[in-house]
Structures are given as structure tokens and as C-alpha cells.
Amino acid sequence: MTTALRVLVADDQALVRAGFRMILTADGIDVVAEATTGAEAVDAVRRHRPDVVLMDIRMPEMDGLAATRHILSGTGDAPRVIMLTTFDLDHYVYAALTAGASGFLLKDVTPEHLVNAVRLVRDGDAMLAPAITRRLVERFAHRDAGTSVAHRDLSVLTPRELEVLGLLAQGLSNAELAGRLHLSEATVKTHVARILAKLGLRDRVQAVVVAYRTGLVSP
């Protein structure tokens, strides 16, 4: 029997939390806890060990960015974090990406997109297709966000892996990569896994940051 996907919803708006809980539970996803502040989110992750956290950027006491840094800097298996934002060019979002967030959603996301995003991120296939993520990376990739993520030597990658990384940075899914390169999805997944391992990266979002900030791909 497959273990239910466990999600924490962190947002200071009760209606947002209730709406997301309703959408997720209707699709068989277990919302294990809710939080109204970043501090509550950090504590809830410690107590409930969710697979995915839906994290609002702007919350009282501790904002979502600080909470994400706390959660992802801990030892052990950290959850995947999806940032929630009302504004599609929120200036905090890129900093959250460099802190390790695995994707972004606008709060007016459709139910289907919300469910798909949570499942994709849980499986390690960080969502890059939404235009918000591409625009943020393209807008901020050249800036120094105080992270060592971009300091990677791409010479450790094979020519094929460089090709895959370049296409991945354009926001292509595994299926799209497979079609473009005339490979099976299984082979594409192997290439992506090797890229992440060789570069010491957490997920595909960090790989996109590296691709832009090392100059492999230009905005």
C-alpha cells in the first residue's frame, strides 16, 4: 500500500488554508498540520515530518523565507518546500529559491495545478514549468543572492549532461526532454539524477540556478 503524501500548509489567511486543505484531501493527500506563522511552520515540520510544505512568503513573527531556511538547513530528511505568493514577481521569491525551495505557486492556482505540483515536488521533479519560476530565474539569476549554489564546475558533466542541463533550464519536463532528445523518460531521469549528484544539488530548481549563473544558459 502506498504511503499517503503528507503536506503542511503554512499561511496566515484562514481561507487560504481551508481551501488548500479541501483541494488536497479531496485528492487523497493528507494535510497533517496547518501553521499561521513561520515559527509555527518550523515547529510543525519538526513534529509532523511532512513530505511537502506549502509556505506563504509573507507571514507574521517569522516570514516564509526565514522559515524555509530554518527547515532546509536542518539535519535529516527535510521536506520539499513550495512557496506561495500573491504577486508573481515577489522580490523575496528568488531568495527563497536559493535557500532551497522547490517551486512556486500563486495563491489563485487551479486545484489541478496545486495537486500536480505537490505530487511532482514530492517525487523530486521540482516544478519549473510555471512561467513565474522561469521569469524569476531569468530576472534574478545574475544577482549575488549570497548562496554557493552557483559555484559549480560544469566540467564534471558529460556533453550529453550539459545538453540536458541546458534544456532543463528552459523549464522542460522529463517528457519534453525525452521528446526533444529522442530518449526514454527513464534515461532522462538518469541523466538528471547524475547531474544533481555530480554538482551536489538538491533538486532541479537549483540546477536551473546553476545553469543561468554559470553562463550555460542566458536569460
From TrEMBL:
<dbReference type="Pfam" id="PF00072">
    <property type="entry name" value="Response_reg"/>
</dbReference>
<feature type="domain" description="Response regulatory">
    <location>
        <begin position="6"/>
        <end position="122"/>
    </location>
</feature>
<dbReference type="GO" id="GO:0003677">
    <property type="term" value="F:DNA binding"/>
</dbReference>
<dbReference type="GO" id="GO:0006355">
    <property type="term" value="P:regulation of DNA-templated transcription"/>
</dbReference>
<dbReference type="InterPro" id="IPR000792">
    <property type="entry name" value="Tscrpt_reg_LuxR_C"/>
</dbReference>
<dbReference type="Pfam" id="PF00196">
    <property type="entry name" value="GerE"/>
</dbReference>
<dbReference type="GO" id="GO:0000160">
    <property type="term" value="P:phosphorelay signal transduction system"/>
</dbReference>
<dbReference type="InterPro" id="IPR039420">
    <property type="entry name" value="WalR-like"/>
</dbReference>
<feature type="modified residue" description="4-aspartylphosphate">
    <location>
        <position position="56"/>
    </location>
</feature>
<feature type="domain" description="HTH luxR-type">
    <location>
        <begin position="150"/>
        <end position="215"/>
    </location>
</feature>
<keyword id="KW-0804">Transcription</keyword>
<dbReference type="InterPro" id="IPR001789">
    <property type="entry name" value="Sig_transdc_resp-reg_receiver"/>
</dbReference>
<protein>
    <submittedName>
        <fullName>DNA-binding response regulator</fullName>
    </submittedName>
</protein>
<dbReference type="InterPro" id="IPR011006">
    <property type="entry name" value="CheY-like_superfamily"/>
</dbReference>
<keyword id="KW-0238">DNA-binding</keyword>
<dbReference type="InterPro" id="IPR058245">
    <property type="entry name" value="NreC/VraR/RcsB-like_REC"/>
</dbReference>
<keyword id="KW-0805">Transcription regulation</keyword>
<keyword id="KW-0597">Phosphoprotein</keyword>
